[in-house]
Amino acid sequence: MSYANLLITDADGVRTITINRPDQLNALNRATIDELDRALNEADTDRGVRVLIITGSGPKAFVAGADIKEFAHFSVAEGQALSADGHRKLFDHVERLNKPVIAAVNGFALGGGLELAMSCHVRVASDNAKLGLPEVGLGVIPGYGGTQRLARLVGKGKAMEMIFTAGMIKADEALQWGLVNHVVPQDQLLAKCNELAAAIVKNSPTALGAAIRAVNAGYEPGANGLQREIEEFGGCFGTADFKEGTSAFMEKRKANFTGA
Ligand code: COA
User: Fold this and answer.
1) Average pLDDT in the 151-157 region?
2) How much distance in Å is there from the Cα of 108 to the middle of ligand 1?
3) Is the pLDDT of residue 1 over 80?
4) Which residue, of 10, 40, 118, 196, has the fewest CB within 10 Å?
């Protein structure tokens, strides 16, 4: 499939999706969100893809937010539709993908950019990264999950402060807050993400999907995370991956998982 706003590369079970609008600091316009939706569906159904890395093109920005120029004249109904559409096509889509997604935050992650990073399962930032939710400075609030996911990651107090001040924090502070998992020099960012991906790729795809669903359930209002864990744990016993993993252990060999 071809994309106007994305670059896609594959290596050793790892698909890297690069948002490629560097002259607009990779801002998320509707066309890019639609393409990301398609790219996620494509990665989900491709058995050769076991882990995804999402990053931004150029040295300056991961994603500098939703495309302000595109929504500046929207009505109330259009604003609501923009948010709902984005949740469904991109932000919830990433979070609920059955394959681990790593955000390689290579610069500014602002507004929708930070919201995209927070929807990913793991975040690695380069040391030049700056993260923030500047929306209230534009007269709007974070509308792609920021009010919920930031509070889950860093706690309600820090989330309120970050949203109220519309300020940016540097990568090392984001690490201290628990907003990112690792900070590395910019020229080592993709290597670090690929190192993490390589550690994930050797594990069972069916178990990884089950783990994502179980962890996510703990953050879904009305869902019972521990009950979901019981169901997902039990479900693993019916997979070929489980038979392979346990047989390999007993036969003292490396497991060769197929994701079945
Ligand atoms: N939406 C649309 N265009 C954006 C954008 C966004 N969120 N962020 C950056 N751009 C565009 C700029 O308009 C500019 O385009 P132009 O050359 O056609 O005018 C280009 O990207 C480069 O950005 P510029 O502002 O010149 O770079 P800078 O280094 O001076 O500043 C930022 C970088 C990130 C501080 C600044 O671009 C910014 O504040 N962006 C908006 C961040 C934001 O509020 N995001 C939340 C949106 S809800």
Assistant:
1) 97
2) 10
3) no
4) 10
Ligand 1 atom, smallest distance to 168 CA: 35
Q: Which residues line ligand 1 (CB under 6 A)?
A: 24-25, 27, 64-69, 108, 110-112, 134-135, 138
What ranges in 170-250 are assigned the alpha helix state H? 171-177, 189-201, 205-217, 225-236, 240-250
- Give the whole-angstrom CA distance, residue 89 versus residue 118: 15
Please report the pLDDT score of residue 19 as a whole number: 98
Q: Render 221-238 in DSSP notation, one character per residue.
A: TT--HHHHHHHHHHHHTT
pTM: 0.98
Q: What is the pLDDT of residues 191-225, one digit of tens each?
A: 999 999 999 999 999 999 999 999 999 999 899 99
Atom of ligand 1 nearest to the CA of 140: 48
Instruction: Give the Cα-Cα-Cα angle 228, 229, 233 (nearest 5 degrees).
Output: 120
Out of 20, 25, 74, mutate this one to test ligand 1's pocket (max ligand atoms within 8 Å of CB): namely: 25
**Residue showing tokens 């998992």:** 181
Reported as a single tens digit per residue, the pLDDT across 90-122 is 999 999 999 999 999 999 999 999 999 999 999
> What local confidence, expressed as pLDDT, does residue 221 receive?
86
**DSSP assigned state of 148:** H
Please give the CATH superfamily to which domain 6-201 belongs. Answer: 2-enoyl-CoA Hydratase; Chain A, domain 1 (3.90.226.10)
Residue of minimum CA distance from atom 11 in ligand 1: 24
Probe residue for ligand 1, chosen from 20, 24, 106 as the CB with the greatest number of ligand atoms within 8 Å: 24
